[in-house]
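ARCHIVE CARD
Drawer: 12
Card no.: 0347
Subject: one protein chain, sequence and derived structure
Cross-reference: see card 0346
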Amino acid sequence: MIRITDLHLPVNYSTDDLEKKICKSLRISKNDILKYSIFRKSIDARKKQDIHFIITADIYVKGNENACLSRAKCKNAQIKEEYKYKINRFGNKVSRPLIVGAGPAGLFAALILAQSGAEPILIERGKKVEERIKDVETFWTTGKLNTTSNVQFGEGGAGTFSDGKLNTGTKDTRARKVLLEFVKHGAPEEILYNAKPHIGTDKLRNTVENIREEIINLGGKVLFETQLISIKTKDDKVIGAEILQKDSKSIIETDNIILAIGHSARDTFEEIYKLGIPIEQKPFAIGARIEHLREKIDKSQYADFAGNKNLGAAPYKLNVHLKSGRGVYTFCMCPGGKVVAAASEEKRLVTNGMSNFARDESNSNSALLVGITPADFKSDHKLSGMYLQRELEQKAFICGGENFYAPVQKVGDFLNNVNSKEFGEVLPSYKPGTSFCKMDDILPDFVCNSFREALPLLNNKLNGFADNDTLLTGVESRSSSPIRILRDENMESVKIKGLYPCGEGAGYAGGIVSAAVDGIKCAEKIIEKSI
């Protein structure tokens, strides 16, 4: 096929407009095109008076493709091979693999293993997605938390209650396999080409359920409300896993475990530490959610084009480097979304952001984070980053009123270090409720000081970002895992053979796609070993 890059098209372009651009670039007629598809589409909003799409298209033409390119003399066109992912068949040299955790890493590890014929066993401490939704809604409505079925735990992982963002910094070609599998299982086809693809939490749920059904149909087993208690080893090799299922303990015998536990499996972190499995402290970030009116963000990003249905709700991604050496940045931005209660432990409050596919809520929000390093933990203990997270979440719970109401403060009041007394134009989207509090009573001084220095600078990059009525909602403490479980070039634990630390919880990913890719890579290593 022929791939053409850098096709500029107006916001309201038609199919005919795109076909004319393709024909002009290749110096062919419409009749010479067998078929074509969009490979990538991004928005160029650098010049507010000329916002447009930039498209990369894949074209199949009649006749010889090389001859076509030679005639066209188009510098932006080249021959490309269609993407294909090959899965080797699972052999009999190893036993049936066990995957712990049904987030993106665990799901895709199980899917690849199932497609290879391995008949994997996937265990998840939470519930299947259709049951999990009910527990989360109950928590958001009443403040009654289920500690094993919530925004963090359950089928699909934390990403199931997010924006379902699929943009990633990874250059790994397996990312294409992830997107193709999502579409195969019900995700919108546009995620294959949008530069900033998202499924939306509403559509992601059905997709996750369909992936599970394929794993089962291919001979895999999926066990919900099943928690890993301990890893069984002999001569520093995996021989099994102790699990807890409905108050009953049992052993699953296996010589390969993919540990895709997510960044909030704190009791499992403690068990790993107790077993002496090598881990290390890892940098992560802490902060709060920042919430604006969606239409204001849209206007700042798209000017007179704001509200155009082809553009949708506007995203942003901001960062500044401060004189102190710290970085402040936005993360997990949710256009037209909500701030959500994401706690997984009693008496500890944490927030996250979520959008449905339509991104049509009144507000837009993102995490506003300050990067921290192990030097900020004030302890050499391997789990001290986790203990810091817990400390901040407990402060937020107390400040909010000890009922999972989230502490909130208007940005103008935060900058002046005074309590907020009433809301302005931005009303909080967080449920079950909010309480006015000072972020200084929750977050460390270096975080608040960094915010105060950064907010005016960020406002210079995005007009209105630090408006007085903008809301801060605390606390955002789980941007990534606070530990890394050390592994070697074969993706196995440096101490325990057959144990594969995987995904975001193990410290090797930072989002849905990168976690899924890591799961695929771990699955491939087990398949290689089986042959």
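Annotation on reverse: The longest strand covers residues 33-44. The chain has twelve helices and 23 strands.
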